[in-house]
């Protein structure tokens, strides 16, 4: 009787544990630990009730037990974790693929080691140890290979239509074979074939989800990159118009200031006019790089730096970057300088807010280098992709990726490094 009860509740325990492992990176609700314990208890009671109360033959009873338990586990995950119901069901199905793979592997090893399928996993200590070793090992390996990277920022970002296709095509087949194997329990060879196929089917589902997530990540990145590019184009067009207006106004103001200087003025008024003259000269003559796109970008960013009291200097040979498409050049510089400004703005001491930029030729190379003060302990990953520190992670953090794509478009290489208190971005192109 006890063995029968244990066998009837072991499936929801295995399924929930597998789902808990899959949901390690998912946002949790309050008192989630208590919710987990209560969910295990409730699932066991529910499964035991289903097993003893639902009438019918093995196929009908098994199907009802499976479907009701999976649905219940999905609802319990929704109760434990701060995710949508469809995310909870998705997590449950990933957990089922892991659980079923481990179950098949355990039965397979039992056949190979004993020649017969065990009537119960709790018969003796040797069977229990084999069970624990296989399940824990399978869960760990499958999680590290596939399930670990499925969630992002505490939720699943997936294409549910494509994911559902994999589950609909493969999981029911595994379920049917599982029911068939119970009907042919007397033939270990046929059971062995079923276990191998079911393991392959479950591994295939997890593999498809893993690659599906990669495709979705690329789609999200491309969408964001398109938005960034579109915003940069609009900003570029607006900047050209604005700076052109500023330049014309500056020329007009210079003549008006000259006229005022010829009059007899007090010392205070002369000082005020000198300050206005300096400001006009800054906007009128800041950057002349022989590249209109560079002039526009540098002028725009220098005004931002001026607003935040950032020391910005640029030694640039604009002709060296003439091989780049104007929009590519503007987006690349805009993202790079925006990243530098964002980092430097956090520094409290204004005298330490420094950004410098150089574009120069060295042998057969053209080098773009942007340096900015960086007092934080910032580590640069090997792939050079920095994670954003902004709250809106869906639309930020793609600046470096955008720069890299543009650099690689022109067969260049991008490197990021931190040297003492300076963060250095270097793009190198062949002439």
TrEMBL record:
One of its GO terms (molecular function) is identical protein binding. InterPro entries: HATPase_C_sf, NatK-like_C. Coiled coil: none annotated. Pfam families: HATPase_c_5 (PF14501). The chain crosses the membrane at residues 6-24, 31-50, 62-81, 128-146, 166-184. Keywords: Membrane, Transmembrane, Transmembrane helix. The keyword Nucleotidyltransferase does not apply. Residues 324-427 form the Sensor histidine kinase NatK-like C-terminal domain. Gene3D superfamilies: Histidine kinase-like ATPase, C-terminal domain. This is GHKL domain-containing protein. It comes from Roseburia inulinivorans. The lineage of its organism: Bacteria, Bacillati, Bacillota, Clostridia, Lachnospirales.
């Amino acid at each position: 009787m006890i063995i029968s009860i244990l066998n009837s509740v072991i499936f929801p325990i295995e399924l929930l544990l597998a789902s808990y492992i899959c949901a390690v990176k998912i946002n949790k609700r309050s008192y989630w630990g208590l919710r987990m314990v209560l969910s295990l208890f409730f699932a066991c009671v529910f499964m035991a009730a289903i097993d003893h109360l639902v009438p019918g033959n093995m196929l009908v009873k098994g199907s009802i037990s499976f479907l009701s338990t999976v649905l219940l586990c999905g609802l319990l995950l929704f109760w434990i974790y701060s995710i949508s119901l469809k995310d909870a069901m998705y997590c449950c199905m990933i957990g089922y693929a892991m659980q079923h793979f481990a179950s098949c592997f355990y039965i397979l090893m039992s056949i190979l080691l004993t020649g017969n399928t065990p009537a119960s996993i709790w018969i003796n200590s040797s069977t229990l140890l084999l069970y624990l070793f296989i399940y824990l090992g399978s869960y760990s390996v499958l999680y590290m290979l596939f399930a670990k990277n499925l969630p992002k920022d505490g939720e699943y970002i997936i294409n549910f239509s494509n994911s559902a296709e994999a589950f609909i095509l493969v999981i029911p087949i595994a379920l049917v074979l599982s029911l068939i194997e119970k009907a042919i329990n007397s033939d270990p060879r046929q059971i062995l074939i079923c276990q191998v196929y079911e393991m392959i089917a479950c591994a295939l589902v997890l593999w498809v989800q893993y690659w599906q997530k990669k495709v979705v990540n690329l789609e999200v990145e491309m969408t964001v990159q398109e938005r960034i590019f579109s915003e940069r184009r609009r900003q570029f067009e607006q900047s050209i118009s604005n700076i052109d207006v500023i330049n014309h106004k500056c020329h007009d103001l210079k003549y008006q200031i000259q006229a005022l200087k010829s009059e007899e003025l007090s010392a205070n008024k002369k000082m005020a006019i000198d300050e206005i003259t300096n400001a006009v000269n800054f906007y009128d003559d800041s950057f002349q790089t022989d590249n209109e796109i560079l002039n526009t970008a540098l002028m725009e960013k220098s005004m931002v730096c001026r607003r935040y009291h950032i020391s910005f200097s640029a030694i640039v040979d604009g002709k060296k970057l003439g091989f780049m498409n104007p929009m590519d050049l503007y987006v690349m510089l805009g993202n790079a300088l925006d990243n530098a400004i964002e980092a430097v703005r956090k520094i409290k001491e204004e005298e330490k807010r420094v950004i410098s930029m150089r574009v120069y030729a060295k042998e057969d190379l053209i080098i773009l280098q942007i340096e900015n003060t960086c007092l934080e302990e910032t580590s640069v990953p090997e792939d050079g992709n920095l994670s954003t520190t902004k709250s809106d992670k869906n639309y930020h953090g793609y600046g470096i990726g955008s720069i890299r794509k543009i650099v690689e478009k022109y067969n260049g290489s991008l490197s990021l490094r931190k040297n003492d208190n300076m963060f250095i971005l270097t793009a190198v192109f062949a002439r």
